[in-house]
Amino acid sequence: MQALRAALLRFADDGTPLYERDGLVVFGPDAEGRQVVRAVGAWSQLADRVAGLAVRHLPGRLIAPGFIDLHIHYPQTDVIGSPAEGLLPWLENYTFPHESRFDDPAYASEIAAVFLDELLRNGVTTALTFCTSHPQSVDAFMGAAQRRRMRMIGGKVLQDRHSPDGVRDETEQSLRDTEALIGRWHGTARLGYAITPRFAPSCTEAQLRGAGELAAQYPDVWIQSHVAENRDEVRWARELFPQARSYLDVYRGFGLLRERAVYAHCNHFDDEDRALMRDTGAAAAVSPTSNLFLGSGFFDFEGAQRVGFQHGLASDVGGGTSFNPFHTMLAAYYAGREGQTKPGVSLTPSRLWWLHTAGAARALGLEGVVGNLQPGCEADCVVIDLQAAPLLGRRVAQARSLEELLFALIVLGDDRATEQVWVDGHAAT
To answer: Per-residue pLDDT for 339 more than 80?
Structure first.
């Protein structure tokens, strides 16, 4: 049993933030041996229940759920910060040449370790992750995540056309490899598998059809891909799949829209696309730093809320510019004000935080499992130092409400504020 005492943030089922200025969270094994939240709430109400248990008192800290990154590329760790005119030149000049190196298991293992340690250093305890087209890239990622006790989801990229040598795969072999990787990793420890077409233009109809058949055969695995990231890509998809109503509709036609399907970006949607996401249970991984960096467009938060489909926040490293959730939340705040409609929306700080924790868990179909600190949730959390930088400390001291406190962290926080991360009930940093 582990008990942590400090200011405490968690979320009710409707997304309402629950805050204790002096709170307590207790981790311990459940009946199945999983490390979960056993008790949580105000210290004044729980102190008698933990008599005799060593309590770590952390004044000046905030205990919050571990962050969830809904879309990220571990092979692009060393590509972050590479300049390009836009998405397609960036892929051609940086991403594909770098990803070709992941046929080497030793190199894949090296980058997987750096990637996961960087996530932990920034308070991210769960991520939905692209690997490369090489099966060994999945093995390296999953093995490194298992050793760190992390709940991670990842998959081998499918891309059998419009891709250079070194990353292009072969249709039938790619599907056999995917099924073998599902058998090897899905449900092992805290790991999950995601069927991963890179994006529709990189896949033949035969490969997309095979991916959809695997998704039907294994309904509890995830699906991840990209859609409607920028206008050039949308035009390309329309030329390649003229029978589809929209870029998103391409995936529907191959059985790749359902619950546990997460599509990155979703910037250039109309209301029919939004309704299709809602009706199929698919979710959007909003990637604001990547969208800004590559000039791809803005996710329409107003449209998503109006039509009512699930969405959460993602870094999209290496197109994204930071592993840090504070930077992602701030970029989402900017993007929400811009949007595709006028006026945009002003996302509240607690809503931004929810979209990167409990809301992201809901989008993954893992509500009540990760992304929160309610009883029964798995024991992943971040301890944030509210005095980590001088200006942050000054602003936090003047906060008159929870919203002001959270927004100060979003605007002024960085990796220095992540003092400690707990994964599966164990201190990871």
So the answer is: no
